[in-house]
Design brief:
alpha+beta; 12 helices; disordered C terminus
Length: 400
């Protein structure tokens, strides 16, 4: 029954306040009729009704907007009732009790304590020195102190409880907002990863197909007997590109990503197979130091960087020879790809091309670094340093 009444009070605040003021008005008048058996009832009906009206009317108008003024007015009305000879009872203190409660809930502990002491400073001396009826001193001092302390304590408890609930809700909203931001960040990272993967697949195969087609066109004029073999290789290259693209798009269309078929990620173990696919480009691979197994993220990153570097050599450098050097250090793998070409566009040479941007992003994703630029002796060089044991290995990528 508590929740429906609370909802009704929130939805009909003005009606509830009016009903409360009427009840307190009746309680004030009823409390003014209570007296000690040995004392005569004071004859002050008119002033008592006026004080009750002022007290409850002020409470109705100011308890939410000006709670401090409501406490002051209701305390003065209680003091006026005491001066009329009425006994201090909880019913007579009703409007002041509610005003103190409203003040304590809306303000801090210090403000409510000041108003509590100020109300006592007005009521107790009035009861001791102005009361025309000789009521017991305990009812003039201890009774109002106890009854007025009750709304202060209760209001502080309610205020702290509301603050706790608000803090819990704020933390829940912050956590929910954090989860949404994390989900959005993961979506962005996944989109970048997919774009990088598609770029590597498309750029590699198109560059290779372009090189094979150009070589076939040249041999068609000089060595027609060798064209058939190149056209067969070209068909295989385009078929491989279509298969990889179809597999990648198929992964994106999977309704349940956890059940999507996964293929092993390529790595440096497939480097020899990669270097043999370039028509018209002599690729030489040299390994320095003791080769060691790499984490899946670093292995895939190394493979993709070599693949993209050779793709750039074919597309932009116009080179005949490329060299790939793998140097296994104590805690780093250094990959150097050089060529003897000369035709490198400025957008690639200064690192503004998408290929170099993708290679840098791949290297940085596993804690590495990449440098690219012209060599003094001619040609172009891409140098990548990757940690053998990254602090935060990149998650294993799905690769068709």
């Amino acid at each position: 029954m508590f929740i429906p009444w609370q909802r009704y009070a929130d939805d009909h605040a003005r009606t509830v306040d009016t009903m409360t003021a009427v009840l307190l008005f009746a309680a004030f008048l009823f409390g003014s009729e209570i007296s000690m058996p040995s004392n005569d009832q004071p004859d002050a009906a008119g002033p008592t009704i006026a004080l009750a009206l002022v007290s409850c009317g002020t409470l109705l108008l100011w308890q939410h907007t000006r709670p401090g003024a409501a406490v002051a007015v209701t305390a003065c009305c209680v003091a006026g009732a005491i001066a009329c000879g009425h006994l201090i009872t909880p019913l007579l203190l009703g409007p002041l009790v509610l005003a103190l409660y409203r003040l304590t809930v809306r303000t801090g502990r210090r403000t409510s304590r000041r108003h509590y002491l100020a109300a006592l400073a007005l009521i107790v001396p009035t009861a001791l020195f102005v009361d025309p009826v000789a009521h017991p001193w305990q009812l003039k001092t201890i009774s109002p102190a106890v009854w007025l302390l009750f709304p202060v304590v209760t209001g502080n408890v309610v205020r702290l409880q509301r603050a706790y609930v608000d803090a819990v809700q704020a933390r829940a909203e912050y956590a929910e907002h954090g989860r949404e931001e994390e989900a959005q960040r993961r979506v962005v990272e996944e989109r970048v990863r997919i774009a990088r993967e598609l770029h590597d697949i498309v750029a590699h195969h198109l560059a290779l197909a372009n090189a094979q087609a150009g070589t076939a066109a040249h041999l068609a004029r000089t060595h027609p007997d060798r064209v058939q073999g190149l056209l067969t290789d070209l068909a295989g290259t385009t078929s491989s590109a279509l298969r990889e693209l179809k597999a990648t798009v198929g992964l994106l269309r999977q309704a349940d990503d956890g059940e999507a078929p996964l293929a092993p990620s390529p790595g440096l173990a497939q480097l020899a197979e990669l270097t043999q696919t370039w028509a018209g480009l002599d690729v030489k691979v040299a390994t320095e130091g003791a080769a060691r197994p790499l984490s899946p993220g670093v292995d895939l990153t190394a493979y993709r960087i070599v693949q993209e570097a050779l793709t750039n050599v074919t597309k932009h450098a116009g080179a005949r020879t490329a060299r790939v050097r793998l140097h296994f250090g104590r805690d780093r793998l250094t990959i150097t790809v050089t060529d003897d070409g000369t035709g490198v566009p400025s957008s690639v040479a200064d690192g503004r091309g998408f290929g170099l941007i993708g290679m840098r992003e791949r290297a940085e994703s596993v804690g590495g670094a990449l440098q690219a630029g012209h060599r003094p002796e001619g040609g172009f060089q891409v140098t990548t340093r990757l940690p053998l044991y990254p602090d935060a290995p990149a998650p294993r990528e799905r690769t068709p």
